[in-house]
Amino acid sequence: MVKFVFVTGGGLSSVGKGILTSSIGKMLQARGLKVTVIKIDPYVNVDAGTMNPYMHGEVYVTDDGGETDLDLGWYERFLDLNLQKENNITTGLIYRAVIEKERRGDFLGRCVQIVPHVTNEIKHRIHDVAKKSDVDVVLTEVGGTVGDIEGLPFLEAIRQMRLEEGFENTLYVHVALVPVLDVTAEMKTKPLQHSVNELRRIGIQPDTIVARSPKMIDTEARRKIALFGTIPDDAVFCSYNAESVYEVPLILDEQGMSDFICKRFGFSECKKDLREWRKFVDAILKPQHEVKVALVGKYAGLTDSYVSMSEALKHAGAACKTRVCIDFLEAEKLEQDKECAEKLRDYDGIFVPYGFGPRGTDGKITAIKFARENDVPFLGICYGFQLAVIEFARNVCGLKGANSTEIDPNSANPVIDLMPEQRGIEIKGATMRLGAHKILVEPKTSAYSLYKNEEILERHRHRFEVNLDFSEILRKNGLVFSGKSSDSRRMEILELPDRFFFFASQFHGEFKSRPGRPDPEYYGFIKACLDKKQKKHKS
Ligand code: GLN
User: Fold this and answer.
1) Cα-to-centroid distance, 461 and ligand 1 (Å)
2) Which pTM does this prediction carry?
3) Which of 174, 437, 462, 508 is catalytic?
4) 455 among known catalytic residues
5) For the chain (length 539 residues), average pLDDT per consecutive 10?
């Protein structure tokens, strides 16, 4: 019988529920158990695709083209899974399905209500994932905080699941912040107590509580959390501030959390093995070298906008025994302020990430030009790829006003243009070119030496692409398109063979990067940053 773990959070958002859920999954995997994870997002959007990354963080793209919450990225990275659209459930998705069923006549004669129709739809989707993925444990993280209006139908659904699945097959984990006061250094458990009360008011008694705290909770705090949470002392765990998020499974495991869960589910026989994970964590924590990377972006004020990219850079760093220090530079500042552009000299590598719309593009192009002219290792992803084409067209091929029609619809030289199949699309939700597509890699290129494969599958999220009318002039001037779609119609990878490392892709390698198995383009970039730095020091 499949087991269900439900993770809720209280008090305030961003207490690290995503990392906690991933860490519980990791501890269970380390026992040889098969797990999958569902993220519930109580907002009314059908998916995360139409949300601004500056407010909500990046949109994570799954193989099947789902535009999902960034927590799916944490699950995939921690658990080395390839999840699907259905692993992200939103209010919008649930209501849309219920309303469609109502219109079809599935509930004829009945009044359609939150309980049971909406809650049944939620449970049905959780069960569906459980069935399809054939796992031992399904972890479900409920986004937002307990008590939010939007979250109530989801909490009601998971409350009912205890009745239906039985005590021995369900586990409620609640996490809340335990702040430490600056003045008295006292640990404050009251906010946590309140959120547990709120959860109980809804009808859920947590089985275990995780205190999210700056440091390890003391005995007094543990005793209080246990007493007011009505759980034994040994069901209280603490997720304290760590140098790296990848330490969290080790921190919780040391406190006995996986023993607790396994005992509860009757998995105690399963031996645990976290050696591989520990090895990766050690590589992250004890680097021998360091490189500084400038990430020139439009959403630089919110690092969550680029979380998969930063993590992919770190995975690549760990593989090169290198700490990757990332400075998030606001692209717009770079276009207005010459001194800021001069600062680019301080970096071992320049990285230009994804993006949408004209804002900040001049600054990104300035950074790309700087990288090309000064032979600083460069990696461009998606918009970064398109802007590298524009920079090359303008400054090497001499194509005046070369641009993307996304930035200048009247450009005389539209080297980047809307994909033909995108013309006429007016609906914005889920209509980009999304998900995994096959790419053919040209032998004897940098791309080939990185991927060691003539065929790769990579994830996409874009509407624009290289305009084939210009591919010949770009090629003649030295730009190599070393990766193309299987019909050769789309340019997918570019490189400049006469530079130390100048590489960009239309796809997003970061979504496939995993601890211990970095993505090739990110690895190539960090390795180049390090090699170039060491070469510079020697000369
Ligand atoms: N705005 C560009 C496009 O739609 C790039 C998208 C991206 O960087 N993900 O094609």
Assistant:
1) 7
2) 0.97
3) 508
4) no
5) 96 85 98 97 92 87 97 98 97 98 96 97 98 96 94 98 98 96 90 96 98 95 97 97 97 97 91 94 97 93 92 98 96 82 92 96 96 97 98 98 98 97 92 97 98 98 98 98 96 98 98 97 98 91
